[in-house]
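Hello,

I think I submitted the NAP job twice by accident. Can you confirm which output corresponds to this input? Input:
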Amino acid sequence: MTEKMAEPRAEVVCVTGGSGYIGSWLVRLLLDRGYTVNATVKDLKDEKETKHLEALEGAESRLRLFQIDLLDYDSIVAAITGASGVFHLASPCTVDQVHDPESELLAPAIKGTNNVLTAAKELGVKRVVVTSSVSAIVPSPSWPSDVPKSEDCWTDEGYCKQKELWYPLSKTLAEKAAWEFSKEKGLDIVVVNPGTVMGPILPPTINASMQMILLLIQAGCTQTYENFFMGSVHVKDVALAHILVYENTSATGRHMCVESISHYGDFAAKVAELYPEYNIPRLPKDTQPGLMRSKNGSKKLMDLGLEITSLEQIIRDSVESLKSKGFLS
Ligand SMILES: NC(=O)c1ccc[n+]([C@@H]2O[C@H](COP(=O)([O-])OP(=O)(O)OC[C@H]3O[C@@H](n4cnc5c(N)ncnc54)[C@H](OP(=O)(O)O)[C@@H]3O)[C@@H](O)[C@H]2O)c1
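Support: Only one job matched these inputs. Its output is below.
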């Protein structure tokens, strides 16, 4: 047992999407805090989903893995049975072109959320932390340009449909479904809205947000999206934010989780400054014209005690992890 490992406690919690990038960090921190964790994976036979979790400290005695499909209610019930809290992270996370938005993104995100919340309610779970996204906050083109975006701001569904932005639409509709369920059925939920999550990678595979920084470094990708903003955030901060809003019963509503609200150009310039050996393209200062920068995006979480990792550290931890995992030379 390492120094950081807490005494085992009786409480069981369930993490859906436990095999994923953020999920793995959350499982690790929960085990460190002494929880017993039911973590879900999509395929128990796939070692790429299970091995890194089974190797975590405390896993041998306090981690149980469950195979679920978000559209299969019974598989979810099995994973949540016995848990007093649920962290619902599982959701298809891609910004790539999809062929069938309904089956690939919208149904698992929305119906999956409803299935998880229904099971949680049926099984008497006391609190569910729902992982939404800054993608449920932007794009929001009608938001006044002289006011920083905040938890009060919601993604414009019509704009997403018109521009075929299916991932933000899936996150927005899933979060709205969660709030509706909570209101109608009286289930205690709290929401975390992370920005672009980066930092050390625990699974052997690379997720969508780490691909973004890899693409910037390897291919000089300068694609920016109008009406979005860059809200870099350290993966460990995101995992910790989930635990903070779970453990603090005073935490309510949505919680934006970002190092800052910034422009993509700010991020690219910082990567170029820290790693001059990579050929990072120079971008105009304002890559998201009309967007107000802010350092207070995560105020609600900071008030709960979250210390936000600096952008410099986020980038360093990401690049070093990409190198050590062999994604970057
Ligand atoms: N990464 C970011 O920058 C970011 C920012 C804001 C919000 N989020 C949200 O955070 C959550 C986790 O994202 P991540 O970055 O950790 O992505 P990830 O590594 O792709 O993890 C997603 C997890 O969901 C599981 N999953 C997906 N579809 C499923 C299905 N139909 N049935 C069962 N499980 C399914 C995945 O299983 P497999 O591994 O087997 O596919 C994986 O464990 C998502 O809700 C995402 O929208 C991410």
